[in-house]
Amino acid sequence: MPTIKILPHPEYCPQGAEITAAAGTSVCEAMLENHINIEHACEMSCACTTCHVIVRKGIESLNEAEEGEEDLLDRAWGLEPQSRLSCQAILAQADLTVEIPKYSINHAKENH
Fold it and tell me: What pLDDT, in 10s, does the model give residues 28-38?
């Protein structure tokens, strides 16, 4: 199973974390299943940017971003070339390192 290294984030993962998840799982699902409560205001339907992550290592192993995801990412805070919506980034067999951006454009926390 691939390992996802999550870099420290002051709210969601202060110490950072390393989790494992089965190939075919989204990065968002893997984090939520491991008690890293990343925002996902649209319930992982690819309709917002609250689950935006920056893939620091292993992006080439993920599925290709589709046009709808790319359009939404244009609105994400802190967009970088390695940005993905974690609900759309599907794990393969390779390990990843991801960073959760410090801010989101979400005005109200959903508290999932």
Answer: 999 999 999 99
- pLDDT exceeds 50 at position 77: yes
Contacts of 43 (CB under 8 A, 6+ apart): none
Structure token digits, residue 60 = 């080439």
Q: Residue 25 — left, alpha, or beta (φ > 0 → left; ψ -120 to 50 → alpha)?
A: beta
Q: What is the distance between the alpha carbons of residues 75 and 9, in angstroms, rounded to a whole number?
A: 21
Cβ count within 10 A of residue 85: 27
CA 37 to the chain's CA centroid: 11
Prediction pTM value: 0.91
Write the DSSP assignment of 11-41 as a string of letters. TTBTT-EEEE--TT-BHHHHHHHTT-----T
